[in-house]
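Before relying on records like the one below, remember that each one covers exactly one chain. Contacts with other chains, cofactors or solvent are not represented anywhere in the record.
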Amino acid sequence: MKTPMTACLLALTMALSACAIQPAAEQATPTKEVPQARVYIKSMLSPTSGTAEVQFSRTSTFLYGNAPLELAINDVVLAQIQSGEHFSIWLKPGTSYDFSIRPIHSLNSPAYPQTKKISVELKNPGVYKVRISAGIEGATLQQEK
């Protein structure tokens, strides 16, 4: 009788520890903006003259997409984005950039998480929107028109 109860308590403890509290600087903001602590290339957060704004928004989903994702630009991790969050970066127009997302490796993620990619051609200064959502096959990236 003691062993099944111990196993249940151990399983509950492990499940709760998986819900570890993020440091205050990394928690979601009231505006759902990605905190700067989770943006790794901070120089892209500041608009400058003649640059194009790329807006990223992640839809709030319960199934198939609630885990944090790493967002990369040209295979360099740019930020970590949670469900329902958004942020913008500013880049030089006249070139194409490759963006990719993948789940952050954890005990709940597959051993080899699938990376999804999209190329966005920034022809002129302006606003370009990229939506991150999820489906049965996992996280998806798509450029909004």
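The chain has a mean pLDDT of 81.
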